[in-house]
UniProtKB/TrEMBL annotation, chain A:
The keyword Iron applies. The lineage of its organism: Bacteria, Bacillati, Actinomycetota, Actinomycetes, Kitasatosporales. InterPro entries: NADH_UbQ_OxRdtase-like_20kDa, NADH_UQ_OxRdtase_20Kd_su. SUPFAM superfamilies: HydA/Nqo6-like. [4Fe-4S] cluster binds at residues 52-53, 118, 148. Its main location: membrane. It is found in: Cell membrane. Its cofactor is [4Fe-4S] cluster. Belongs to the complex I 20 kDa subunit family. NCBIfam families: nuoB_fam (TIGR01957), PRK06411.1 (NF005012). The gene is nuoB. Residues 1-15 have a biased composition (Pro residues). This is NADH-quinone oxidoreductase subunit B. NDH-1 is composed of 14 different subunits. Subunits NuoB, C, D, E, F, and G constitute the peripheral sector of the complex.
UniProtKB/TrEMBL annotation, chain B:
It catalyses: a quinone + NADH + 5 H(+)(in) = a quinol + NAD(+) + 4 H(+)(out). SUPFAM superfamilies: 4Fe-4S ferredoxins (SSF54862). This is NADH-quinone oxidoreductase subunit I. Keywords: 4Fe-4S, Cell membrane, Iron, Iron-sulfur, Membrane, Metal-binding, NAD, Quinone, Repeat, Translocase, Ubiquinone. [4Fe-4S] cluster 1 binds at residues 57, 60, 63, 116. One of its GO terms (cellular component) is plasma membrane. It is an enzyme of class 7 (translocase). The gene is nuoI. Binds 2 [4Fe-4S] clusters per subunit. Residues 162-175, 183-192 have a biased composition (Basic and acidic residues). Its main location: membrane. [4Fe-4S] cluster 2 binds at residues 67, 106, 109, 112.
TrEMBL record, chain C:
One of its GO terms (cellular component) is plasma membrane. This is NADH-quinone oxidoreductase subunit D. Belongs to the complex I 49 kDa subunit family. The lineage of its organism: Bacteria, Bacillati, Actinomycetota, Actinomycetes, Kitasatosporales. Its EC number is 7.1.1.-. NDH-1 is composed of 14 different subunits. Subunits NuoB, C, D, E, F, and G constitute the peripheral sector of the complex. Pfam families: Complex1_49kDa. Keywords: Cell membrane, Membrane, NAD, Quinone, Translocase, Transmembrane, Transmembrane helix, Transport. InterPro entries: NADH_Q_OxRdtase_suD, NADH_UbQ_OxRdtase_49kDa_CS, NDH1_su_D/H, NiFe-Hase_large. It is an enzyme of class 7 (translocase). It comes from the Bacteria. The chain crosses the membrane at residues 351-375.
């Protein structure tokens, strides 16, 4: 995961991967390249279509944009057969347990793209009482696609970004127990604006 | 099942018609856009990313205040400049320290661009800025300034449309100047009254 | 939810089985959840459980001024963003007693109809998909892309246009846009026959929808069902004709209200398909009128701070999916005191409680898909 603060984590003794067989860590480098190459271009996608962005997701899978060209296959019958989950739309607090549960059902290695402002951080509904402020509060997200809703090409670019990431990754690092905590995902987003001189102060408050 | 008017009651004819559509479409050109290889042609009004022309920004905070989900962060401080003429008043002006837009929160409504009184914000159709870290989606002023290079010229308006107010203002100013120049020239010719040119 | 819902093969209450469909299920586009009590293959009772997409938009309206509300209002029914915006601005304009320039009225009508086509195309494609025919949605989305391109050129957005402002529209049309819009409308119309051929004449499609899920007129009135679903049951009511807003009053000769009397799934689909044709005709008529209009402004100069006077009003529009109403209460401040949203899908899916009992589980998907709902519109 890219969430780790320093890009080059110290070479720690490889822990027992959680779901991979014991032979996985013995796999030689060319094998890893082949594995990554295979994962990269057969991403069975499970669309967690929730709101507006789901329509743009469908548009991206249709003939005009057609992400099967990039090796993204939108026919996963369910989360258990999928490699990639695309969360498109507002995650509400009522829906969040279902998102988490379906994510947990996916087999490793699994990737998540958060598609659109709502699933990135709540978007237009960030101050609502019933909306989860970003799907990354409940599941780790690999790529964030901005937009409200993002255009289908933006999703394609997000997928390309994810594929680059998959090409770079090594399973040993991925399954190392030192996963970034939820704290690392959520803290330190922005510093609150300093009390602005003159007119600007306190304007962001919701009434 | 009653046959549709116009569809003969031969069993399977509806299926055959559908297949005929498929066959006809097969012979046509594909509609697929080859995105990573060929970039889409986007209209100039397309709302992709917000660019900041920070030279125009006077830190009036209107955009940050009017934003429906308050995703614009502006920091500034006051600077006082010495008076232009000795004995005059000190001038103070706001200096921009930070201008950031959180694109993970932005709802792409364009209110900030609309309310900006000094034309410091613009839409750019760029959309390729997906990130692996959500913090990178908060674009700081350097990045926002870089987007300026991708801002297209606004499209010409429909002939039946009213003039855009910028053009109207510019035209009025030009006409006024032309009239003044004309008047000045007339004054030069007749040398009657020198003050008339100012009117 | 206090009851425990159990999946197939689980325990049951009595001899009945309780089957849970959703909230994330391929046939419920969106996150609607259904709780069915089954007796063998028959559905004994059905209860739609809503709220998985509840985002509290009405509460958020109260913290935003009238310009910002427009931007939030278009998101509850994401397939008909333009019509949603329209309701809000119509309500505010009525409160202010504001007169909208003629050019804006006709452009709004035009864009609302184009938006209707976009919305209907989505359902024309997705309904056969739910019944097992994958092909039509590809055709529907090809048309949608064309229309979205036109909408994007004028407004900058593909789905959420945010083109309405109180007092008019955001900015005027780009040069040559009307010509391109006309060409696109003509192209879409010329290809609408493909959906006729692919879906409407298909024996399997007709066999699965004819006579299935008949909604009676009493139930339409009882549940406040509106839009194409109500008209498919013979309820001849369309705000565009019966209480004309925008420029619909002057479009009476083009405007046709499509009705059917059967009330079954096929009738609902037919109404939707024919409405698409009507909407395309209306768009053409609007384009004709736009070219004849004298040059003029497209919006009104607004004060810096827009405050609706104290009072209340109710503005309703014929959204693609049915009646969409905004009840606006203002205390004279720049934010509304309350903005109640009456959305079409919420009422429409309540009819499922009477539609589903007595039908087979296999028909459930056919009925559910033919209710043409958007979950955001249900849950707001």
């Amino acid at each position: 995961m890219d969430m780790t603060p320093d890009p080059a984590p110290p070479a720690q003794p490889l822990p027992e991967p959680r779901r991979l067989g014991p032979l996985a860590r013995l796999a030689p480098e060319p094998m890893k390249v082949v594995l990554n190459w295979g994962r990269r271009y057969s991403l069975w996608v499970f669309n967690f279509g929730l709101a507006c962005c789901a329509i743009e997701f469908i548009a991206a899978s249709m003939s005009r944009h057609d992400f099967i060209r990039l090796g993204v296959i939108p026919f996963a019958p369910g989360p258990r057969q999928a490699d990639l989950m695309i969360v498109s739309g507002t995650v509400t607090d009522k829906m969040a347990p279902a998102v988490k549960r379906l994510y947990e059902q996916m087999p490793e290695p699994k990737y998540v793209i958060s598609f659109g402002a709502c699933s990135n951080c709540g978007g237009p509904y960030w101050d609502s009482y019933s909306v989860t402020k970003g799907v990354d509060q409940i599941i780790p997200v690999d790529v964030y696609v901005p937009g409200c809703p993002p255009r289908p090409e933006a999703l394609l670019q997000g997928i390309l970004k994810l594929q680059e990431k998959i090409a770079r990754e090594s399973t040993g690092e991925r399954y190392a127990p030192a996963k970034p905590s939820v704290q690392a995902l959520t803290s330190g987003l922005v510093t609150p604006p300093a009390p602005a001189p003159g007119s600007g102060s306190g304007s962001g408050d919701t009434k | 099942m009653a046959p549709l008017p116009g569809i003969p009651g031969i069993p399977g004819s509806g299926l055959a018609k559908g297949l005929a559509v498929t066959l006809r479409t097969m012979t046509k050109r594909t509609v697929t856009a080859q995105y990573p290889d060929a970039l889409p042609e986007l209209p100039p009004r397309s709302r992709g990313v917000i660019a900041l022309f920070e030279e125009n920004c006077t830190v009036c905070m209107l955009c940050a205040r009017e934003c429906p989900d308050w995703c614009i962060y502006i920091d500034s401080h006051k600077e006082t400049a010495p008076p232009a003429a000795p004995g005059g008043r000190e001038r103070s002006r706001n200096v921009l320290d930070r201008f950031a837009i959180d694109f993970s929160l932005c709802m792409y409504c364009g209110i900030c661009i609309e309310v900006c009184p000094f034309d410091a914000l613009f839409w750019s159709p760029e959309f390729e800025y997906a990130e692996t870290d959500i913090l990178d989606l908060t674009h700081e002023r350097d990045k926002l300034r870089d987007w300026m290079w991708t801002v297209p010229a606004p499209p010409a308006l429909d002939p039946a449309a009213e003039e855009p107010k910028e053009i109207a203002a510019a035209r009025k100013a030009a006409e006024k100047a032309a009239a003044a120049a004309e008047a000045a020239r007339r004054d030069q010719g007749s040398r009657d009254d020198q003050d008339e040119g100012d009117a | 939810m206090t009851e425990t819902t159990i999946g197939i093969g689980g325990a049951a209450e009595g001899t009945d089985m309780v089957l849970n469909i959703g909230p994330q299920h391929p046939s419920t586009h969106g996150v609607l959840r259904l709780r069915l009590v089954l007796d063998g293959e028959r559905i004994r009772s059905a209860e739609p459980i809503v709220g998985y997409m509840h985002r509290g938009a009405e509460k958020l309206f109260e913290a935003r001024d009238y310009r910002q509300i427009v931007m939030l209002a278009n998101r509850h029914d994401w397939l008909s963003a333009f019509s949603n915006e329209l309701g809000v601005v119509l309500a505010v304009e009525r409160m202010l007693g504001m007169e909208v320039p003629e050019r804006a009225v006709w452009t709004r009508t035009l864009l609302a109809e184009l938006n209707r086509v976009l919305n209907h195309l989505m359902f024309l494609g997705s309904y056969p998909l739910e019944l097992g025919g994958i092909t039509p949605i590809f055709y529907a989305f090809t048309e949608r892309e064309e229309l979205q391109q036109v909408m994007e050129e004028v407004s900058g957005g593909r789905m959420h246009y945010m083109f309405n402002r109180v007092g008019g529209l955001k900015e005027d049309l780009p040069n040559g846009w009307t010509g391109r819009a006309r060409a696109t409308v003509a192209a879409v119309r010329s290809r609408m026959g493909r959906i006729d051929d692919l879906v409407l004449g298909n024996e399997i499609f007709r066999g699965r929808t004819r006579g299935v899920g008949v909604l009676s007129q009493q139930d339409v009135h009882g549940f406040g069902v509106s839009g194409p679903i109500a008209r498919a049951s013979g309820v001849d009511f369309d705000l565009r004709r019966d209480e004309p807003y925008l420029a619909y009053g002057e479009l009476a000769d083009t405007m046709r209200v499509v009705t059917r009397t059967e009330g079954d799934c096929l009738a609902r689909f037919e109404v939707l398909l024919e409405q698409t044709h009507v909407a395309l005709d209306l768009a053409d008529a609007c384009l004709d009128r736009l070219t004849d209009l004298p040059p003029g402004p497209i919006n009104q100069r607004l004060p810096k701070v827009l405050k609706a006077p104290e009072g209340h009003t109710y503005a309703w529009t014929e959204n693609p999916l049915g009646l969409n109403g905004y009840y606006l209460v203002s205390k004279g401040e720049k934010t509304p005191y309350r903005l109640k949203l009456r959305s079409a899908s919420f009422n429409n899916i309540q009819a499922l409680t009477v539609l589903l009992p007595g039908t087979l589980v296999a028909d459930m998907v056919a009925i559910l898909g033919s209710m043409f709902f958007v979950v955001g519109d249900v849950d707001k």
